[in-house]
Write a structure and sequence with these properties.
InterPro entries: BioC, Methyltransf_11, SAM-dependent_MTases_sf. With 257 residues, this protein is of the alpha/beta class. It has one domain: Vaccinia Virus protein VP39 (Rossmann fold, 3-Layer(aba) Sandwich), CATH 3.40.50. The chain has helices spanning 12-22, 26-29, 31-44, 61-68, 80-88, 125-134, 153-163, 174-181, 200-209, 226-234; strands at residues 51-55, 72-77, 94-97, 110-116, 136-147, 185-197, 243-255. The chain has a 7-stranded mixed β-sheet, sandwiched between helices. The longest helix has 14 residues, at 31-44. It is globular, with a radius of gyration of 18 Å.
Length: 257
């Protein structure tokens, strides 16, 4: 099955710093994360299990949603600042600083492992899914969402038109994501979603606001100057509704039989 190479090895410290900088304002910009997370909850809400791991919890928005259902929630994040936000809001029952690819939990610790738009930041998807499956007890369920190839294509196109660069993180093809799920009984679904912005500056601020900066060799550049943004806008594929930013969302369910 043809696939493209996996994204470059993630600099976990750079990722943690980027999300840490975004922690205080994250919820103002996290529209896509809320859409995706609600869909994930719907895929797992019928499971009777009481203990939930929110892996890559961010500010704890969905940790809190799980608690409202009467679940016992362990919130885990790579960013200390994100975890502090979750703790401040009393979003979870327990809080853990950790990496999804090396979860600091024993085998079979939870009934549901919930991971909303976080595994795309991991070094390898198979390892991340294997860890989420490991800490889920038999009869439990792993539910995750991630971004696939084709996401942010308008922004990539604009950068290429401007200076021949890409400056957009690379995402795995949908086929490679499905392949990573094959060791277990699973279900995969896909969904296209588009966010619209009035101008390129607002668009770029929204990406920075959720910590989704371009991380190439550990570098996370800040916002661009006005002249550079204006130049970027000239090559951006604008539509009547404004400036689009497309996402190819993949939802996965892994069953621990």
């Amino acid at each position: 099955m043809p696939t493209e190479p996996a994204p470059r090895q993630a600099d976990k410290q750079a990722i943690a710093r980027a999300f840490g900088r975004a922690a205080a304002r994250y919820d103002r910009f996290a529209e896509l994360q809320r859409i995706s997370g609600e869909r994930l909850m719907a895929l797992s809400a019928d499971h009777p299990g009481r203990q939930v791991l929110d892996a890559g919890c961010g500010t704890g928005y969905f940790s809190r949603r799980w608690r409202q259902q009467g679940r016992e929630v362990t919130a885990l994040d790579l960013s200390a600042e994100m975890l502090a936000q979750a703790r401040q809001q009393q979003a979870a029952t327990h809080y853990l600083s950790g990496d999804i690819e090396h979860l600091p939990l024993p085998d079979g610790a939870v009934d549901i492992s919930f991971c909303n738009l976080a595994v795309q930041w991991c070094d390898t998807l198979p390892r991340a899914l294997a860890e989420l499956h490991r800490v889920t007890r038999p009869g439990g369920r792993v539910v995750f969402s991630t971004l696939a190839q084709g996401s942010l294509q308008e922004l990539a196109q604009a950068w290429t038109a401007l200076d021949g660069s890409r400056r957009v993180n690379r995402f795995l093809p949908a086929a490679a994501i499905e392949q990573a799920c094959r060791p277990w009984r699973h279900q995969i679904s896909a969904e296209q979603h588009c966010l619209w912005f009035s101008d390129v500056m607002t668009l770029m601020q929204s990406l920075k606001g959720i910590g989704a900066t371009w991380l190439q060799q550990g570098r996370a550049p800040g916002l661009l100057g006005r002249r550079r943004l204006d130049a970027l806008a000239t090559g951006y594929p604008r539509r009547e509704q404004g400036f689009p930013l497309s996402y190819h969302l993949i939802y996965g369910v892994l069953y621990h039989d």
